[in-house]
Amino acid sequence: MKGTERPFTGALWNNHESGMYDCVACGQALFSSDAKFDSGSGWPSFDDPVNRQHVEVVEDRSHGMVRTEVLCKRCGAHLGHLFPDGPRETTGQRYCINSAALRFQPTT
Asked: Is 72 a catalytic residue?
């Protein structure tokens, strides 16, 4: 399923703990809390994956728009979308990811 949760409703959009965000479906490490930033969008936002080989980006032409979909490279799970409006001082990218697609593993 490639749905998107409503903004400001997911469990992780406002999480500020240190740790790793893994794929909820297969456990692949996807994003570090070090890459998370407050985009104001209401979804967890990251400027870079922990390893670019862990995610796949594909063109998404659904809903009459052209966007870049982000998938887990290991299992193909829909994670969210990639936008070019992230922090310019880092990558300039915003990986806008659904909380429901992630499992947070706090640093111990």
From this structure: no
Q: Which two tokens stand for residue 84?
A: 């070019």
Q: Can you name the residues that pair with 36 across neighbouring β-strands?
A: 46
Burial class (CB in 10 A: 0-12, 13-18, 19+), 14: exposed
- Cite the beta strand spans of 1-108 per DSSP E: 19-23, 29-32, 36-37, 45-46, 55-60, 67-72, 78-83, 94-97, 102-106
Amino acid at 66: V
Is the alpha carbon torsion for 89, 53, 21, 79 positive or negative? Answer: positive
Q: Which of the residues 23, 26, 75, 96 is marked catalytic?
A: 96
Could you give the 3-state DSSP secondary structure of residue 65? Answer: coil
Residue ranges of the chain whose pLDDT lies below 70: 1-3
* pLDDT at position 60: 81
